[in-house]
Automatic annotation (TrEMBL):
UniProt xrefs under InterPro entries: Transpos_ISL3 (IPR047951), Transposase_DDE (IPR002560)
Annotated signal sequence range: none
Upper classification of the organism: Bacteria, Pseudomonadati, Pseudomonadota, Gammaproteobacteria, Cellvibrionales
Source domain of life: Bacteria
Protein name per its UniProtKB record: ISL3 family transposase
Positions of the Transposase IS204/IS1001/IS1096/IS1165 DDE domain: 151-383
NCBIfam families: transpos_ISL3
Alphabetical list of Pfam families matching this protein: DDE_Tnp_ISL3 (PF01610)
Coiled-coil stretches noted in the UniProt entry, renumbered to this chain: none
């Protein structure tokens, strides 16, 4: 590569002159004649030359504009015409690929369209168009992916008008696999039927949603359903706090007591535990339910158990559910019984939907930065660009 090619980043150019005003104006021409692109012959003559202006890159705070003398060749062997092609500059484009990629990466990193329009001397509509072009390229390549083996499924809020969206996460590689509008089987049916490789899914992690469980059973027949540990713990706390409100409505309003009730018993200091036991001593039924709740949470937090250890724990767990069925927490006991198989599967599995919840936080920040999304496809493409597939087609 020539010295001029190293500076500009485009090989095969000879710089004629450089003018620095508001920007950097560079006049250049090709150094060598290429072989004929039709017959690979070398008998070329220059039929005509025209000037082409292309935005290339930024040096410091100045935009470099290339004024290229583009020869039109006539091949003496095949008698055909063609124009000189430059590396990194597509035909009829007014900006080089390096410049378009620079704008895309800046906007993808959080720089606003308004600021890019000032620094790169293009319109906000052009920034959006270039960004969408690169995102669609990634999405078209990503559409050839197979469904991941370990799949997390959860919902998140999109807009008031369009409601909720469903997030599908590759929990093994910590990537968002896809985002689809809707959370019912009717709204997701067409997408799930066309999903390639769904028979390869081995594990589906979800919250205690009957809708998602029926979807997993129907569209992922070879997958084991695993309950999400966080949502099970939250369900237990919600039922316990509801029963507490029935026994002591005034105590339920105490924020300090709420904090102590929600925490795991082994995370309390001795002083905090003593204060809590002193309060619960006034309500014997509530105290017994609190002890049962702590035992229940210890079972829920079990993970990476062998089949043998899980079979030993299961009868004790079932006995605890039988005891809760005769208490004010009978609704909780019935719910856990109906989800017994996914909860037992949770003991043997270490992954949770915390990865998906983390991506939901990131999606919310993206929505706030954009002052809200109206077009779901635009939102989906941006989510996949920030949280999803990184350019490697995974067929494993």
């Amino acid at each position: 590569m020539s010295h001029a090619g190293r500076i500009i980043g485009i090989p095969g150019l000879e710089i004629e002159r450089v003018v620095r005003r508001k920007g950097i104006e560079v006049w250049a021409k090709p150094v060598h004649r290429p072989p004929c692109k039709h017959c690979q012959g070398n008998g070329l003559r220059i039929k005509a030359t025209h000037l082409r202006t292309v935005k290339h890159t930024r040096q410091g705070n100045q935009v470099m504009t290339l004024h290229l003398r583009v020869p039109k060749y006539h091949c003496q062997e095949c008698k055909r015409y063609f124009r000189h092609a430059f590396t990194g500059i597509r035909p009829r484009f007014r900006a080089s690929e390096a410049y378009r990629l620079e704008v895309f990466e800046a906007h993808d990193g959080g720089v606003t369209q308004r600021k890019l329009s000032r620094t790169h001397q293009i319109s906000p509509a052009t920034v959006e168009r270039w960004y969408q072009h690169h995102i669609k390229q990634k999405r078209s390549e990503g559409d050839r992916r197979y469904c991941p083996r370990v799949l997390g499924i959860d919902e998140h809020f999109f807009t008031r008008k369009k409601g909720y969206a469903t997030t599908l996460t590759d929990l093994k590689n910590h990537k968002v696999f896809d985002v689809q509008l809707g959370r019912s089987e009717l709204s997701l049916r067409r997408y799930l039927k066309a999903l390639e490789g769904r028979e390869r899914v081995q594990v589906v992690v979800m919250d205690l949603s009957e809708t998602y469980r029926s979807i997993a059973r129907r569209y992922f027949p070879n997958a084991a359903i695993v309950a999400d540990r966080f949502h099970v713990v939250r369900l237990i706390n919600q039922h316990f706090l509801s029963v507490w409100k029935q026994h002591d409505p005034e105590g339920r309003k105490n924020r300090g007591l709420i904090s102590l009730m929600r925490r795991h018993q082994w995370n309390l200091r001795d002083e905090q535990h003593a204060n809590l036991m002193q309060y619960l001593a006034e309500y014997p039924v509530l105290q017994a339910l609190y002890v049962a709740k702590q035992r229940l949470i210890r079972f829920v937090l079990l993970k990476t158990l062998t089949r043998k250890k899980a079979s030993i724990k299961l009868p004790v767990f079932m006995k605890l559910l039988d005891e809760l069925a005769e208490s004010p927490l009978r609704a909780l006991a019935n719910t856990l019984r109906s989800w017994l198989k996914p909860i037992v599967a949770m003991w043997r599995f270490s992954k949770s939907n915390g990865i998906t919840e983390g991506f939901h936080n990131k999606m919310e920040m993206m929505t706030r930065r954009a002052y809200g999304f109206r077009n779901f496809e635009n939102y989906r493409m941006r989510v996949l660009a920030h949280c999803g597939w990184d350019g490697v087609i995974n067929r494993v």
